[in-house]
Give the backbone structure.
Amino acid sequence: METKERRHDIDWLRVIAFYILIFFHVGMVFVPWEFHLKNSQTVEWFETWMGFLHQWRLPLLFMISGIVLYHSMGTRIGKSFFAERSRRLLIPLIFGMLIIVPPQIYYDRLFHGFHFANYWEFWKTVFNFVPYPMGGSLSWHHLWYVLYIFIYSLVAYPLFKYLHNEKSLNFRNKIGSFLKKHPNSIYSLIVPLLIYYYTLSQKFPETHGLIDDWYLHSVSFTLFIVGFGISSINGFWDVLVAKRKQSLLQALIPTFILAAFVWGPTFEVVNEDAGWFIYVYGIFKMLMIPSLLFAILGYGRILLNKPSKVLSYANESVYPLYILHQSVELIFAYYIIQLDWGVLPKFVLLVFVTFGISLFIYEFLIKRLNVTRLLFGMKPIIKLADSKTIKNKLLQTENS
């Protein structure tokens, strides 16, 4: 079963989610939270908007990744599925760990007082294959998301194969009918998220270290599966659209409460063993996250399902920009934070530099060659003659 409808709203949300991530990472230079480089002056008022974004930016990415995988899976089964996932995720991950990420570690080390004769002297240490930060220079840094999606795709493949097959049509129709009769059942997603939070969040705080990240795995993998289910289960999108106003209201109420009492200056209260507060905070947090995700998807379906040239360009460029952005950011942040400027001008400059340089590299060094497109997880450029040959073969296959 192949999905031919182009969902422009999903493309828009994917682009927006990754752009929010870039803004968030730039903001990390200017808040008191731990990060690779820090401006000499940090501002606590950044914590409110960043604290809000931090709750749902990654859940949205994992849910959209599941949705996108359904629409891109097509007839890829077995080896072709694993080949596509490797080309799209594994190759950029390995390339990123060896080439893209090391400058981040280099400037991290310079910022913390280490000295090297030059960058190449440092870069050689990457091939000692000792993990960062345990004395080594090999790390996936922000590319942990790529690794997680790759692993989740492999683990969930049997389920995805079943849901993408006509054999599961009756099962999917039954779930779709249930959702239409009981639309509020979509909010039952709150229950497993609460269980994860109460049982795992304090024992396994977010690390991006793969083997010890069980709270993040439980939330992210669940949302990845739900995202795939949203597109594979008939009627799920209709329910999201119908419940978009309720979802938004359910998200806004806990958001305002948490913004007023938790995501303010210091952000310390959620990191403390506060006893009863952990339980109260968990309820507000897990009511907000799925409600906001459903609201975003519901309103996105209504407002954003439109093609445009801007979207076409942004959608193709956003993955290479994601791979590039944090290295570009930290290289220039190292010098920008040394300027005798206020926080806000530095933040604005770093945002423009991060986007601008990343787009420049994409436009002139990545998108024009098939080898660089491969390294950054993009589809190859197909020449006109090749495209006609492919079309003829497809027509011959259909006629036979």
